[in-house]
Design goal:
- By secondary structure, the chain is mainly alpha-helical.
- Helix content is about 55%, strand content about 5%.
- It is built from three helices and two strands; from the N terminus they run H-E-E-H-H.
- A two-stranded antiparallel ribbon has the order 1-2.
C-alpha cells in the first residue's frame, strides 16, 4: 500500500487533478480523485514490472557471483549437469 501511495503522488505531480483554483485559492478538493488520476495505472504497471526485473537481476547476479567463485553445492548445478 505504501508503494501505491508513492506512485499515486508521483502520478499526481505529472497530472495534477482533483481540485480547482478559484481567485488564487485551492477549492473543491477531492483527495481520491487526485491520487487515482488517469496516470496512476500506467505508472503502477511500470513500477511493479521494473521492481520484478530488478529483483530478478539481483538474484541472478548473486547466483552468477557464487558460480564464478566456484561455489557448487547442492542448489547450484555443476557445469556437467547443464549438458
Amino acid at each position: 500500500m505504501g508503494a501505491m501511495w508513492v506512485i499515486g503522488v508521483n502520478s499526481w505531480m505529472n497530472d495534477p487533478t482533483g481540485f480547482r483554483v478559484a481567485n488564487g485559492k485551492v477549492v473543491d478538493v477531492h483527495p481520491f480523485t487526485a491520487i487515482f488520476n488517469g496516470h496512476i495505472w500506467h505508472e503502477m504497471i511500470h513500477m511493479y514490472l521494473a521492481a520484478y526485473m530488478v529483483a530478478g537481476f539481483v538474484v541472478a547476479g548473486i547466483y552468477a557471483w557464487g558460480w564464478l567463485r566456484g561455489k557448487r553445492d547442492r542448489y547450484i548445478p555443476r557445469r556437467t549437469d547443464l549438458r
